[in-house]
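Researcher: Please predict.
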Amino acid sequence: MRIRTSMLASGLLASLALAGCSTTSDTKDKPKDVAVRTQTTEIFSDAYGPVTDAGYSLPAIPISRLDKKFHRQIVEFQTNEQPGTIIVNTRERFLYYILPNGRAVRYGIGVGKQGFAWSGEAYVAWKQEWPTWHPPKEMAVRKPDVARYVEDGMGPGLSNPLGARAMYLFNEKGQDTLFRLHGTPEWASIGTAASSGCIRLMNQDVIDLYSRVRPGRQTKVVVIQ
């Protein structure tokens, strides 16, 4: 079901239209930077083979062609945030899912192009398997070939820009930020700022993250630059 919400000018974020999602920026209440030193304790380079999921056949990712630091791994990670928190470091191109005992699952990510950057705090309001993609109207103006998807959406599938999973971020007032954590069929964009959308993960990684995340205000998301 498509969520229809209006962004208030006094809210956490001010809307910008992107390819795939809309993101927003707030200059008053940015979270403090998270200075951490990480050390890998376990790496999952063998987790990127072919996957059959909900009737869709995801192809294997040629993971050896991607820098190993962007492979899914368990790392030592010291933070004051509670287990279950998601910390996104857009500058380093990593997403951390906080585990107990000073550890985290680290995923490589792709981020929005310069000028579409976002930072702030939110929570995962809801999540969806094989989501329908609705590009923002502003994107349809720039790219008329996607205009037909604004209202009806692009159905789920291997070429859908949101990939196999999507997690929808709302601000503390319960408003949709239009910012998403989602999968992508474009594995080569991981570790880059090539995406003009939201935070993207390889499909095999977003499936793993999705299985860990419980929607609700207890699932805090901190995005830092």
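Model: Confidence is low (pLDDT under 50) at residues 1-20, 22-30.
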